[in-house]
Amino acid sequence: MEKVLVLLHTVDGELPAAAMETLGLAQRLGAAYELGVIGAGAAAAAQRVSGGAGKCFAVEGEAFSVSRYATDAAACEAVIRASGAPVVLAPDTLRFHRCLPGVAERLGAAVDTHVVAFTPEGAVERWFYRQRIQAELKRTERPWIVLVEPGSQPAAETSAGAAPEVLEVSCETRTSVEGFSTPLAGEQTIRPDAPLLFVAGAGWTKKQKDGAVHVEEAAQLILDFVRKTQCSLGSSKSLVDLTSEGQPVLPFLTHLHQVGQTGSSPRHRKGLATCCHGEEPHVVGWRFIQERRAVNLDPNCGWTRGKADVVYVADAFEVMRELLKLL
After folding, report:
1. What is the per-residue pLDDT across 173-224, written as a single tens digit (0 to 9) for each?
2. What DSSP character marks residue 25?
3. Which end of the chain has the lower number of beta carbons within 10 A, N or C?
4. Please, is 154 exposed, middle or buried when counting C-beta atoms within 10 Å of its C-beta (0-12, 13-18, 19+)?
């Protein structure tokens, strides 16, 4: 296996989970690897995990502490050139997904995104067509930049090493960061790194056993659960489509929450589906969830046919009320 450069970035001075997963993949390849880190506190973060790396590089400073295409691209280019490694492994985060294809163009390199495996023989595996087709690829172009899908690899076992070489990088940019606009505490509902994914189906907006619709109570139960557990919230396509059909809807759901064949395919350790039918178009989005459970009143729903590890045949409203009491 050729020499590998593991290229990472910090978040608030620390290496995120996706970075540690990419480093773990490099360690398991058994090849000699070097380490490069950019962002706020990059040198200290790099030193904490550089045990086992041949060389270590860092780019830090006020200009590189925030995510911005011009500065990120300049920093990554400098680290890749300083290393000279033919293969570059980086986490497929929003920050790197935006800048590394441009860096590949500057270097005359090849680039692949959403990679889920890298073999010692030099082949990568990735998914196509909404996670339905898995392909194995090899490239002869070098450098080769490989962006590793977050959640697809076990994290690295790290140890401290020598202080990194801090590279001086200059970059002109016409943009400045004024600050951040974020939701109020507890109102963020999409959390890719959360251990639990909670998915709501259209059954929440249908008539219940008393013959009435309880959308407001459903919304309150779901939001309370998300806030107290800090889980990530998903939705079936049928539920988010109700907005355009003039039917009662949960006001906080958008198509960004959609999980399934035409939505996202998240990678959480556990998943809990409520009021979802569990048929194939929805379950496609669950193939990377490690433990799948569902709550549904119908004992013959799709989840019971080998698509979930555990199915609770129960009223989701009653289940959520009891869960919130326990929480």
Report:
1. 888 888 777 655 456 898 888 999 999 998 899 888 898 989 999 999 999 9
2. H
3. C
4. exposed
Contact, 8 vs 35, CB < 8 A? yes
* Mean pLDDT in residue range 92-112: 96
Please provide the size of the chain in residues.
327
How much is the pTM?
A: 0.76
171: closest CA among 101, 254, 70, 270?
Answer: 70
Report which residue type is found at 228: K
Ordered strands of the 310-313 beta sheet: 232-235, 196-200, 270-274, 291-296, 310-313
In the chain, where does DSSP find H-type helix?
Answer: 17-29, 42-49, 69-83, 94-107, 215-229, 237-241, 280-283, 316-326
Residue with tokens 């490239």: 139
* Structural domains in the chain plus CATH codes: 4-166 (3.40.50.620), 196-326 (3.40.50.1220)
Q: Cβ of 214: how many Cβ atoms within 10 Å?
A: 17
pLDDT per position as a tens digit, 285-303: 888 898 999 999 888 888 8
Identify which of 222, 243, 236 has the alpha carbon closest to the alpha carbon of residue 316.
Answer: 222
Q: 61, 119 in Cβ contact below 8 A?
A: no
| Cross-strand partners of 166 | 58
> 3-class DSSP state for residue 217?
helix
- Give the pLDDT score at 248: 65
Phi, psi of 283 (to 5 degrees): -70, -25
**Rounded to a whole number, what is the largest CA-CA distance in the chain?**
69
Quick: pLDDT tens for 38-56: 999 999 999 999 999 999 9
Report phi then psi at 294, rounded to 5. Answer: -145, 150
**Strand, helix or coil for residue 276:** coil
Joined together, the tokens standing for residue 195 give: 């251990």
Asked if 261 contacts 282 with a C-beta cutoff of 8 angstroms, the reply is yes
Q: Which amino acid is at 211?
A: G
Helix (H, G, I), strand (E, B) or coil at 311: strand
